[in-house]
Amino acid sequence: MDRLRIAMLASISWRVPPRHYGPWEWVTSLLTEGLVARGVDVTLFATGNSKTAAKLHSVCPHPYSEDPEIDAKVCECLHISEVFEHADEFDIIHNQFDFLPLTYSGLVRTPLLTTIHGFSSPKILPVYEKYNHRSHYVSISDADRNPNLDYIATIYHGIPVEDYPFCDDPDDYLLFLGRIHPDKGTHDAIEVAQRTGLPLIIAGIVQDEDYFNEMVAPYIDGDQIRYIGPVGMPEKGELLGHARALLHLINFDEPFGLSVVEAMACGTPVIAIDRGSMPELIRDTKTGFLVANTDKAVDSVSRIDRIDRNACRAWVEERFTRERMVKEYLQVYEMILNQEGMHGKS
User: Fold this and answer.
1) Which overall architecture, per CATH, does domain 5-158+321-339 show?
2) Would the pTM count as exceeding 0.85?
């Protein structure tokens, strides 16, 4: 039997894998490389500077978030159209690019699977609703499912746990890791650090300049509150592993939260606002604390040493590995081919 042929359509905001920030591109890379290792014939549609063991197909040399001279919409149109113009070369097109590729799906016979990495706005929902019965959707958490849509599966992101160094003897600092934006609660993490007297390291890209200048920058003193910018591996693993706790004080219903899983993989417990997918990622009082507000977060810091860091690592090994993610996507591909009457590829 022929090998299963997958067209993996990545976002082109960042390269695959990203140098530091780029969660969609990071997950796309992890899945792509995992599939290739399992013998799947994958063609990755991504930026030309991407790194992969799959076949790389690109029309945009560089990601638009790294090059201000690039017109993002022009590149996106060229990029998406390219995969659909080659649709008959593949058994499945796996869309990791959000809603726009759905509008091409009625023009080709190749089945389209879309991993929905969250809804940036309710305004994009009509596109998903229109193609609900022509396409296949995977949610990245049960919390992020929309009642108006049908899903073929929920598949949690998985990480290469072996790449994350376990640390059982952390330093005495708190960590904020993520994009600096009001949704992510950077200012709330600062408040918790100030009230507990512990140092806070802030790492991540500045996504909202006004918010950073007004709510974050005035408190950065280089001593108790430090900002170190975005970090990639292996620095990220060291930073996560040596933190006493990761503060994830979100102000929105987050669809997943890779940094939460990455922290626990290093043995670091997470203090998170109890919203969105957090109850699916964190075992309350076992791998961290789910809290209602900053007052409760402050209280949780004093109890953080009660968390068994080995239990944090074991939880990720049980639930959030790349191998599990790859296996579940292969099962979904098989389901789609069976539904579409195309069974026989392997």
Assistant:
1) 3-Layer(aba) Sandwich (3.40)
2) yes
